[in-house]
Amino acid sequence: MALLALEDVLLSGDGTFCVEKDFPKVLQRLQEPSLDLKIIFLVGKSVSAANVQCLAAVLHNCPNLEQLNLGSNLIDPTGVQAIALALQRGHCVKLEELNLDGDQIGAVGARAISVALQGHCPSLRKLNLGNNSIGDDGVQAIATALQKGRCPRLERLSLGFNQIGVAGAQAVAATMQQHHLFSLKELDLAGNQIGDLGTKAIAVELQQGHCPKLKELNLSWNQIVDGAHAVLTALRDALCPNKNFKLSLCGNQIGVNGAEAIAAVLQQGSNLESLHLESTGVGDVGAQAIAAALQEGCCPNLKELHLGSNQIGDAGAQAIALALRVCTSLENLNLDFNMVGDIGAQALLEVLRNFKLTSLSVDSNYNISSDCKNEIAFTLDMSMLSTKHTVLNHHIPYCFVGPKLPLLQHLASNPALRFEVTLLDNHGWDGPEMAVILQRCHEGLKELVLRNCAAVKQLPLLPQAERVTLHHCPNLRWQPVAAQFKVLDVRGCPNVTLPKGCFVGSD
Q1: Which of 256, 330, 268 is nearest to 298 (CA)?
Q2: Taking a C-beta distance cutoff of 8 angstroms, is the pair 227, 196 a contact?
Q3: 3-state class (DSSP) for residue 391
Q4: In the predicted model, what is the mean pLDDT of the chain?
Q5: Distance from C-alpha of 287 to C-alpha of 279, rounded to nearest angstrom
Q6: Is the pLDDT assigned to residue 116 strictly greater than 80?
Q7: Poorest-confidence range of 31-45, 94-108, 248-262, 380-394?
Q8: Residue 12 pLDDT > 90, yes or no?
Q9: How big is the CA angle at 140 (ends 136 and 142), to the nearest 5 degrees?
Q10: What is the C-alpha to C-alpha distance for residues 138 and 103, in angstroms, rounded to an integer?
């Protein structure tokens, strides 16, 4: 499969992409008669509307194009209109993914895309128009186009951060009602202003089973208060319930009352797999209500629960820990940026030792002591041995090398164990202690990643390593044997000497 990307022919000598210098190479490559191009990936590279107009003019040479990714550029409505016109002419009927996230298309650009959707993109599966300020007018145009039924395969629709209000949400709901989003699996409306009225309009259609394949709904940061209750009720009572649903309601004004209403719905049964309620003001009381619902065993499929930034203290953490003894399906619990102390952390630690929970994050709970954080970190590390994959990361959780040494002794005693060591941004780690880590585990090490590790000055032989990534380790002196590795990625390490023919990145 041909891929036109920055990693292909578009890199200039210093490893950076220059629009003025390198974009003509794009156009030249696109006009090659033998090119069976399926992917164009030019995300975040300052591609302008004029550049896109030139690109659109040669898309006729890409009849097999499946992915067009032009997000995070400088594309205004005129550039998008050129792309839309190329699509209207039937140049890319096999297109499955169109990504214009983070451009500047506005409502005018959205209307141009909407025309292209009316019969000219029958294979489209993913449409991302997020972060484009298309507003209600733009989303209404997109919804009207989808109501024509000419995009029957659409699975992912991303309209986040677009200044969409109630009218826009109601337009999306109307499209659901007419069964033209039958194949939709993911809907992202985060960062808009749809409020309770817009949320309830969508909830009605979910309850009626008009979006039967939907598995993921993101309504975060939408000024929702009691609409959350309506969505959960709709998911519970849907005519075509989905067993593994992911719901995100972060940043809404749910509060304690909303959390208690959510808990009441959960107590009657839920098909949720993932629930995000970060920054919703639920507090201890809300957390206790949700925990009480989980303790009833009403969420048998729940694997992820995110309650960060909610002013949850020890009381809330203890309630959640108690609930996890019953809700054994939960694998990932996030309580970052709360007010949990050692009492709550110890309750969670007990669950971590004895139940299925494999990921517990309590970052930025400043009432938890270093000793307790380190104990949580070590317990998590030991539980990961069953997956034969160990990640040592200074940031998550906040701990130092010392507590990791018993784990490494365990690893070193089992040379057949395959594992990875990742050390990120560890400027404060002691050089000799770092050397002890690497020396103890080098015989079983299959993959090593060191990024921003000024303390590392040398490496052992690494006889079993297959993949080594070294980024910005200025004091490291090393001369490897290139033939040993499948992947050898070295950047910003001036004292690393690679064999002839190997490339050392400049960044």
Answers
A1: 268
A2: yes
A3: coil
A4: 82
A5: 12
A6: yes
A7: 380-394
A8: no
A9: 120
A10: 14
Lowest mean pLDDT among 19-23, 67-71, 382-386: 382-386
Q: Is 246 helix (H, G, I), strand (E, B) or coil?
A: strand
What are φ and ψ of residue 67, in 5° steps? Answer: -135, 125
Residue type, 231: V
pLDDT in tens, 142-180: 999 999 999 999 999 999 999 999 999 999 999 999 999
208-212, 262-266, 342-346, 404-408: the lowest-pLDDT one: 404-408
C-alpha 83/C-alpha 496 separation (Å) is: 46
Q: Two tokens at 368?
A: 């938890």
**Measured distance CA(21)–CA(128) in Å, rounded:** 28
How many whole angstroms separate alpha carbon 304 and alpha carbon 332? Answer: 5
b/e per residue, 437-469, with b = 16+ CB within 10 A?
bbebbbbbbbbbbbbebbbbbebbebeebeebe
Note whether 438 and 460 are within 8 A (CB).
yes
Q: Which two tokens stand for residue 360?
A: 């517990």
Residue 40's pLDDT is: 83
- Cβ partners under 8 Å of residue 395, min gap 6: 363, 424, 425
DSSP for 439-473 reads HHHTTTEEEEEEES-TT-------TT--EEEEES-
**Looking at residues 203-223, what average pLDDT do you find?**
94
Strand partners, 403: none
pLDDT in tens, 318-327: 999 999 999 9
- CA nearest 35: which of 73, 74, 2? 2
Pairing verdict, β 419-424 and 467-471: unpaired
What is the four-CA torsion angle of 425, 431, 435, 437, rounded to 10 degrees?
Answer: -50
Taking Cα atoms as reference points, which of 55, 107, 98, 31 lies closest to residue 76? Answer: 107
Q: Please list the residues that pair with 449 across neighbouring strands.
A: 422, 469
Q: Enumerate residues 6+ apart whose C-beta is below 8 A from 481.
A: 499
Phi first, then psi: what are they for 450, rounded to 5°?
A: -125, 120
Give residue for tokens 């050089």.
431
